[in-house]
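Q: Predict the bound structure with S-adenosylmethionine.
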Amino acid sequence: MHPWLSAPRCFVAETPLRPGVLLLSKPEGRHLSRVRRIGIDSKVSVLNGCGEVGLAKVVSVDRDRVEVEISERLSLPEPQPRLTLLIGALKQSAWDELLKHAVELGVNRIVRIQSDHAVSEVSGDKLEKKAQRWGECMTEACKQSGNPWWPSLEFAESVEQAGESVKGGSCQFFAGLKQGAKPLSAYLTGEREDEICLWVGPEGDFSDQEYSIIEAGGAQQISLGPRILRAETAALALLARLRL
Ligand code: SAM
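A: Predicted complex:
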């Protein structure tokens, strides 16, 4: 971890980060003053989710409002390979857990797929509201873990649509329960990939037709061992294996 990231962290939607004084109101100011209990002259690191980190000093604290002055900035490189998770829509509690931990592990892109057997069905206005809450949840996870890269969260109405969003020639795997699947290590040759796409089914699994689409797109099946894992466990195990 970069040493600047060990200071209390806050998040601003500003690109590029500019040197100078920055006013943080709720919820960032509140978090710093009430949870992290920072005071005047405390060091704070400012993340913008686009890889930039600002080293700042607190110049004023007024209940939920905190002013910090950014003195230095740096840009951290995006972790390699880029990791894209294409996953069936999970029920609320599982989805929240998945999001938090996937961001901690450094996922770059998540595609939530309204697949055939998905238990959770969120669309229209409800999806817009949820997307906002999920965005906040990802910001929290970036802040908590010192991840300077905010992943993108996208929505696909079908496996087909999700597949269309994968760049041609990308390295793709799907976690599957069919006989004969090999572990991920059988495919990792040590060659550096720019991007790895990981398909994971929802609680009710992908349908046969969806698996045919995924395979036709060039994804190879991998096994995660002899036990049936929850979808979120499967996704997080894969991200951890590839990122850590
Ligand atoms: N409903 C299915 C059943 O009971 O057989 C289980 C689906 S599982 C909860 C959800 C997803 O996790 C699967 O679609 C698959 O992508 C992944 N998964 C779980 N365990 C796995 C394993 N041992 N190997 C590969 N993938 C696994």
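A: Residues 205 and 231 are 8 Å apart (CA to CA).
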